UniProtKB/TrEMBL annotation:
Transmembrane region(s): 20-40, 52-74, 103-126, 152-174, 200-229, 235-254, 281-302, 517-539, 577-599, 611-629
Domain of life: Bacteria
Lineage, broadest ranks: Bacteria, Bacillati, Bacillota, Bacilli, Bacillales
Family: Belongs to the ABC-4 integral membrane protein family.
Membrane topology of this protein: Multi-pass membrane protein
Protein name according to UniProt: ABC transporter permease
Pfam family, any one: FtsX
Domain ABC3 transporter permease C-terminal: 62-174
Provenance organism: Sporosarcina saromensis
Keywords, in A-Z order: Cell membrane, Membrane, Transmembrane, Transmembrane helix, Transport
Keyword tRNA-binding: no
Length: 641
């Protein structure tokens, strides 16, 4: 038998240990390849989303690569620790350390090559289905399967170099120690099981402080907390697992009436050892899971914003003309022609907006007349309102301000014109986007508006509102106007345009496509993160599999039943799976509270439903993964070593 054959048979013989590592590696390669296929797709490269897709998928590739490096280093260390007994026997039989390093190098390359081959093959096999999903979600008209050497070259080159690095560095993880310790499998000394009460209390305090700040955040401090809370929560999480949890379990041990009962003695005493030995692993799993939750949660909130875009943008098109705008009639003619050529029905309402100073507040007030408001309200299916001379209503700038303004009654005189108004309550319908007519606007009667207009040379601006039923079909309306406006903003021209144009249908199309594409990429990354997080626990279980098998063999000889055996296993495995998961869920929930504050300030939308779906979905996946790992663990524990 040659050396390479020996290495190959070693891999096959240890397939149980390498199973999770191989699966996670294959999944990472497959996700990387699918991203590469989308990145180099001809339809993407020729579309308007080229830059966004390149940035999103390129960033995902880099994150995935860096994370895979970390994941493989951790995995390889766990494997070598689990195989110390095997290494001791090989050295006892006369193998040199140089040959042992070569053996590990060959095994790693074999697993890496197999992972790259299987992952790339599965990636290409699922590419057609992947493109069908992307096409439907992102609303591309044509996204066919294609063949190009670029995705293959990028994937094989990236992961082959990665496994080469791992293969060369892996032997550093071997701590040979004494030969007798190797043969017994004791080369890696167990960490001291002590803990610090000070650090334990500090960990709880840091987490409590992080949660309190996240729950009580406001618009004025939320940006600062974005930079403060992550390091605070990270340090608190580390101390929580290394010291706080052992301290809590130690306090439970002191309660004899609780500790000396049924299987709690065994579960708690073993739990202290497991938590202290695996504290760093729990910390890593928690952080990785939190990152996965947050990435998907943030992207889901962006998708939520896109789905609620119509609520915050009730108009189909908006054109705002300021004094001195010589292009107003030309632009309006073009908009009407585009609407007609696309077969879209619309209602156009022209709003001259006047400015006056209020004697009650000394602030400038924007004024519109009730007749114009009623035209727009009628097209939207709302009831027309009537105002008598001297009566006025607040026009709420946002939906959330309606309740406050509706309770107010203000008597004022518009100073330039001398017209007296009694503003009693707020206009009940949200007909305009937020702050469309300014932050301080009122609706007056037709008679009062004409009286005010006699003292005004020209309106402060003219607001053209287009109510369009099929508003998502307006993405091709006024493209040249939109392009001219965008070009002037990008170039920073000293000549500021005297108009403003907004096409919610076009904006929604771009946002929906962008956000759903990013969400899809985020889900793929989250899948890799979560599989890796579960694999960390899997590796740790199999590192201590021999000692666990001996422990349960002793318990079986003492007469433990199969039901009691499962109960003990559950009490040992459930904390390892669900304590890090629960902490990650709590981290994410409080982080989402801060995120909701940001969305309230930007668009006044709720992201609660989407975030609950994300957290519940991930929890169900973790439960399925737990039962799968428990099934395999029980099978191996019951198998004689």
């Amino acid at each position: 038998m040659t050396f390479r054959q020996f290495a190959f048979r070693n891999v096959v013989r240890n397939r149980r240990v390498y199973a999770a590592f191989f699966m996670a590696s294959v999944f990472s390669v497959m996700v990387f390849f699918l991203n590469s296929m989308l990145l180099f797709h001809p339809s993407i490269e020729s579309s308007a989303l080229k830059d966004i897709a390149f940035l999103g998928m390129g960033t995902a590739e880099i994150i995935l690569y860096i994370f895979t490096v970390f994941f493989l280093f951790y995995s390889m260390r766990a494997f070598l620790q689990a195989r110390t007994k095997e290494f001791g026997i090989l050295l006892q039989l006369g193998m040199q350390k140089r040959q042992l390093h070569r053996l590990i190098f060959t095994e790693t390359i074999l697993i890496g090559a197999a992972s790259i081959g299987v992952g790339t093959f599965l990636g290409y096999m699922f590419s057609k289905f992947f493109f069908m999903v992307v096409k439907r979600i992102v609303m591309f008209s044509y996204l066919p399967l294609y063949f190009s050497w670029k995705p293959f070259a990028l994937t094989v080159g990236a992961f082959l170099s990665l496994f080469m690095i791992i293969s060369l560095v892996a032997p550093v993880f071997i701590r040979t120690g004494q030969l007798l310790e190797l043969i017994r499998g004791e080369v890696n000394e167990k960490e001291k099981l002590g803990f610090s009460k000070v650090r334990g209390i500090l960990g709880v305090l840091l987490l409590g402080m992080s949660y309190t700040l996240a729950a009580l955040t406001s618009n004025s401090i939320v940006i600062g907390l974005v930079f403060l809370l992550p390091p605070l929560a990270t340090v608190g999480t580390y101390y929580f697992f290394t010291d706080s949890l052992p301290l809590i379990l130690h306090l439970l041990k002191l309660r004899k009436e609780f500790y000396w009962r049924h299987f709690r003695l065994l579960a708690i005493s073993e739990g202290i050892v497991r938590i202290k030995e695996n504290a760093r692993m729990f910390f890593i799993v928690t952080i990785v899971s939190t990152v996965a939750f947050m990435s998907v949660g943030i992207l889901a909130s962006l998708t939520s914003f896109a789905s609620q875009y119509r609520e915050v943008n009730p108009l189909g098109l908006v054109y705002k003309s300021f004094p001195g705008n010589e292009l107003e009639h030309q632009h309006l003619r073009q908009i009407h022609e585009d609407l007609k050529s696309n077969g879209l029905d619309y209602t156009h309402v022209r709003f001259p907006v006047l400015e006056q100073q209020s004697s009650a507040t000394a602030f400038t007030v924007n004024i519109v007349r009730i007749a114009d408001i009623n035209k727009l309200a009628k097209s939207s299916g709302n009831q027309a309102l009537e105002l008598s001379k001297g009566e006025a209503l607040f026009l709420p700038p946002t939906t959330s301000t309606f309740a406050q303004l509706n309770k107010q009654t203000v008597e004022t005189v518009l100073q330039e014109s001398g017209v007296a108004e009694r503003i009693d309550g707020a206009y009940p319908y949200q007909l305009f986007p937020a702050h469309a007519l300014g932050t301080n606007a009122i609706v007056v009667s037709n008679e009062d508006f004409e009286a005010i207009a006699r003292f005004v040379d020209q309106p402060a601006f003219v607001y053209h509102a287009y109510d369009i039923q099929d508003w998502q079909e307006t993405k091709n309306i006024g493209l040249s106007i939109n392009h001219a406006l965008g070009e002037s903003m990008i170039t920073g021209s000293t000549y500021a345009p005297r108009f403003y144009f907004d096409n919610p249908g076009l904006n929604y199309s771009v946002m929906r496509t962008t956000f759903t594409l990013l969400l899809l990429i985020g889900l793929l990354l989250a899948g890799v993160f979560l599989l890796a997080a579960g694999s960390f626990i899997y590796f740790r279980l199999y590192t201590s599999l021999d000692s666990d098998r001996k422990q349960f063999d002793v318990l079986r000889r003492m007469g433990i039943t199969d039901k009691e055996f499962k109960k003990i296993v559950n009490r040992q495995l459930i904390p390892q799976f669900f304590i890090p998961w629960s902490v990650a869920l709590i981290h994410s929930s409080f982080a989402f509270l801060s995120l909701q504050v940001i969305w309230d300030a930007l668009a006044e939308i709720s992201i609660v439903r989407e975030l609950i779906m994300v957290l519940v979905g991930f929890t169900l996946l973790q439960i399925v993964y737990f039962y799968l790992i428990r099934w395999r663990y029980l099978a191996h524990i019951r198998t004689p070593g």
